[in-house]
Amino acid sequence: MKIYTKTGDKGKTSLFGGTRVNKSHLRIDAYGTIDELNANIGLLKDHVANEIISEVLYKVQDRLFVLGAILATEPEKTEVKLPVFKKEDIRFLEIEIDKMEENLPPLKNFIIPGGHPVVSLAHIARTVCRRAERSMVLLSENSPVDGVLLEYVNRLSDFLFVLGRQLAKELNVNEITWKSGG
């Protein structure tokens, strides 16, 4: 199988199910941003020394592949067999957030991203996650999007924020807090 098919040379691509759409289509933007998020999480995972966090990030990447496949499929194409996304996927993130927060100081200020490249990678992934969420919300205004997918992406951005804090702690990096007025 060749990587290039030339079928997209004129700005169109196919959704799962076969329908051809412009590459600027809301559905393409939504799952393309999920793909970008997945790549950013992969980069973060490659720089994380903690094996447990690395395993959690791998599970997140797996779920993002499923989420992308669902978004890449027209809701009307019920004959396309897709993996299932469940509330347990959201609960998994919540449990991981709770575990990290048990060992972190209470949040009293906004955190300015940075302090260490790995912490910054977590915040970059978080901001891409928020953009993916906005893209999915826009898509949902025009076509059905399962609410579980939106909840997952929202919770994932929370997870990535707390992960940035956890990584800062593990790396002995002081969090940079924002104070109004400089």
In short:
The chain is 58% helix and 5% strand. It has 182 residues and is mainly α.
Structure overview:
The protein is mostly helical. The protein is 58% helix and 5% strand. The protein is built from five helices and four strands; from the N terminus they run ββαααβααβ. It has helices at residues 26-47, 51-71, 87-101, 117-140, 147-170; strands at residues 12-14, 20-22, 111-112, 176-177. The strands form two sheets. Strands 1-2 form a two-stranded antiparallel ribbon. Strand 1 and strand 2 form a beta hairpin. It is elongated, with a radius of gyration of 18 Å. The termini are far apart. The mean pLDDT is 91.
Topology record:
Elements: E1 12-14, E2 20-22, H1 26-47, H2 51-71, H3 87-101, E3 111-112, H4 117-140, H5 147-170, E4 176-177
Antiparallel strand pairs: 1-2, 3-4
Tally of helical runs: 5
First-residue to last-residue Cα separation: 56 Å
Order of helices and strands: EEHHHEHHE
- Strand count, sense and closure of the main sheet? 2 strands, antiparallel
Helix content: 55-70%
For the structure shown, list the relevant keywords.
single chain; about 180 residues; mainly alpha; two-stranded antiparallel sheet
